[in-house]
């Protein structure tokens, strides 16, 4: 996120796209509702009628996977009507003419034919966003979980740069993180292309910095992202896997092929709190400590590093993740770094070691957080107060890069044999694959099992009744679920929650991934439905 969560309540306009915020990020949604109560305008772009969409001044109910067409048309209107901030563009961006050319033919009428959103609404959204001073964009997995997810984000970035809605309070471009510390995991280098602080592994200076800190030569080769790993697993290219806090046999797309592939691994080690579907197939299960059973930090969506303090000891043989990893390293014969026995380190020392190699975190420490509370990075020195919002005075890279994007349809679209578009997502009452939430009876009472949302006209066409049962199938498999007849979805579209192991939505989804990030296309595949 370029901006702080608290800034939402003071925004003049919120453009929420690909985010069912009230169900997936309810605390942030409360801030959005506060802003609307105060008088802020709200634009929601989503294929479904979400709760937040009911609050919107404009609800752009686009067809799944057509975000680039919608956003290109918005950029077209902004440029055609001279609503761009040309002074900001000239001073703080590059590649403007390439983007101008890319959107020149993307009229709202052309976008309407692809997205289904009325051309007048597209133009109104563009004008409202461009002419409102403090306008922020908020998005999540509905934007990124596509084979063209990176293109979607480039289009949003283009809108921010074209209008100069960057480097100021209550504006910017704000991805909402879906888990309590996914930001912190990325910050610390838990990706195949970055060292801590988003320093690329193919950058010799960054490698030299951490080679000196760790006393090891850091390899320059990029690793595999998750989607690539799953393809390697299916093809027999992986011999062993260490799975930490992830139930891949429920969460990964096209999981039917993974069941077989996982069973053929030479070694599968799972680190988790509970016996997940993946843990049931493991050769070794290492019990992990929960959040209240360990010390450390969490970094939330707004880049705020906060302390986590142990409240109770871990049960039985459970250990914090870092202790498990340290023990595995020691038993693998890895020499301790800097002469300190790995298991003797503390979470404070580990954070200090990570932060010492990057200016983004250099001014943050456990001791300082204890004194002052959570700090937002960048925080380069011990007397720096942290950074509420990014890019003040101009983009941090020097000039913001405008990126021309060409619309590409989703990999798999409805046809005569598979006439419906299937999309998946989350509900308010369960979290991810429900490893934890299904153990709470109150939540199960609200959502006891999997269901499919079907438009009333499609329910009539396929002989379905509300509360009945249906088989949902794709080219990859089939599941049986309850039927919810609802106008929340469009005609020709069905929607499934992804939480339930007993009716795995990801038996149906396609394993095609974004070519840059590898993020799978959970939001669009071709499907069929029949009563059961």
Give the terminus-to-terminus CA distance. Answer: 45 Å
> In total, how many beta strands?
21
What best-fitting shape do the alpha-carbon axes yield? Answer: globular
The CATH architecture of the largest domain is: 3-Layer(aba) Sandwich
Which sheet architecture does the biggest sheet show? 6 strands, mixed, barrel
**CA gyration radius, whole angstroms:** 24 Å
The percentage of residues in β strands lies in 15-25%
Instruction: Indicate the mean pLDDT.
Output: 94
**CATH class type of the largest domain:** Alpha Beta
Based on helices, strands and strand pairing, what is the structural class?
alpha/beta
Unreliably modeled segments = none
Strand order, biggest sheet?
16-20-17-19-18-21
CATH topology of the largest domain: Dimethylsulfoxide Reductase, domain 2
Helical percentage: 25-40%
Number of helices: 19
The domain count comes to 3
Structure description:
By secondary structure, the chain is an alpha/beta fold. It folds into three domains: 5-176, 3-Layer(aba) Sandwich (Dimethylsulfoxide Reductase, domain 2); 228-352 and 359-376, Rossmann fold, CATH 3.40.50; 420-531, Barwin-like endoglucanases (Beta Barrel), CATH 2.40.40. The chain contains 19 helices and 21 strands. It has a six-stranded mixed barrel. The radius of gyration is 24 Å and the shape is globular.
Give the secondary structure arrangement, pairings included.
Elements: E1 13-17, H1 21-24, H2 26-38, E2 41-45, E3 58-60, H3 67-80, H4 86-92, E4 93-94, H5 96-103, H6 108-115, H7 119-131, E5 135-139, H8 141-144, H9 149-163, E6 173-175, H10 182-187, E7 194-195, E8 199-200, H11 204-214, H12 226-234, E9 240-244, H13 248-251, H14 256-263, E10 267-272, E11 284-287, E12 296-299, E13 304-308, H15 321-331, H16 347-355, H17 366-372, E14 375-376, E15 400-401, E16 420-425, H18 441-446, E17 451-454, H19 456-461, E18 469-474, E19 477-485, E20 493-497, E21 525-531
Helix pairs in contact: 3-6, 3-7, 3-9, 6-7
């Amino acid at each position: 996120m370029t901006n702080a969560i608290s800034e939402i309540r003071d925004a003049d306009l919120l453009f929420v796209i690909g985010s069912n915020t009230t169900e997936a990020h309810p605390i942030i949604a409360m801030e959005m509702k506060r802003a609307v109560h105060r008088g802020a305008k709200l634009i929601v772009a989503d294929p479904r009628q979400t709760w937040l969409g009911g609050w919107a001044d404009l609800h752009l109910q686009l067809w799944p996977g057509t975000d680039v067409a919608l956003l290109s048309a918005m950029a077209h209107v902004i440029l055609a009507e001279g609503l761009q901030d040309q002074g900001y563009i000239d001073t703080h961006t590059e590649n403007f003419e390439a983007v101008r050319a890319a959107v020149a033919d993307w009229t709202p009428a052309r976008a309407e034919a692809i997205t289904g959103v009325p051309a007048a609404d597209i133009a109104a959204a563009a004008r409202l966003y461009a002419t409102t001073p403090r306008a922020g964009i908020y998005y999540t997995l509905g934007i990124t979980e596509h084979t063209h997810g990176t293109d979607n984000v480039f289009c949003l970035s283009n809108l921010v740069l074209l209008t100069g809605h960057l480097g100021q309070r209550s504006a910017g471009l704000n991805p909402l993180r879906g888990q309590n510390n996914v930001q912190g995991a990325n910050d610390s280098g838990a990706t195949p292309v970055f060292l801590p602080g988003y320093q690329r592994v193919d950058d010799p200076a960054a490698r030299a910095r951490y080679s000196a800190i760790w006393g090891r030569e850091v390899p320059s080769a990029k690793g595999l992202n998750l989607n690539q790993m799953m393809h390697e697993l299916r093809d027999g290219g992986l011999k062993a896997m260490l799975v930490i806090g992830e139930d891949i046999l429920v969460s990964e797309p096209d999981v039917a092929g993974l069941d077989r592939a996982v069973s053929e691994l030479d070694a599968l080690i799972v680190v988790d709190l509970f016996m997940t579907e993946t843990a049931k197939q493991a050769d070794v299960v290492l019990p992990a400590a929960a959040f209240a059973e360990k010390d450390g930090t969490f970094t939330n969506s707004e880049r705020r590093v906060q302390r986590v303090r142990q409240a109770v000891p871990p049960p039985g043989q459970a250990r914090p993740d870092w202790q498990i990893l340290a023990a595995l390293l020691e038993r693998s014969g890895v020499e301790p770094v800097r002469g300190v026995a790995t298991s003797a380190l503390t979470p404070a020392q580990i954070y200090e070691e990570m932060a010492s190699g990057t200016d983004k975190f250099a001014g943050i420490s456990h001791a300082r957080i204890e004194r002052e509370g959570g700090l937002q990075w960048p925080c380069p020195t011990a007397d720096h107060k942290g950074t509420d919002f990014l890019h003040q005075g101009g983009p941090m890279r020097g000039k913001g890069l405008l990126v021309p994007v060409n619309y590409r349809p989703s990999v798999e679209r409805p046809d005569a044999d598979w006439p419906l578009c299937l999309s998946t997502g989350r509900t308010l009452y369960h979290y991810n694959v429900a490893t934890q939430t299904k153990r709470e009876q109150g939540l199960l009472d609200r959502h006891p099992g999997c269901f499919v949302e079907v438009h009333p006209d499609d329910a009539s066409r396929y002989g379905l009744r509300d509360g009945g049962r249906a088989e949902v199938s794709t080219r990859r498999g089939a599941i049986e679920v309850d039927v919810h007849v609802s106008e929340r979805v469009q005609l020709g579209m069905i929607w499934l929650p992804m939480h339930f192991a007993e009716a795995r939505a990801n038996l149906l989804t396609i394993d095609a991934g974004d070519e840059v990030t590898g993020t799978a296309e959970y939001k669009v595949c071709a499907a069929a439905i029949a009563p059961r």
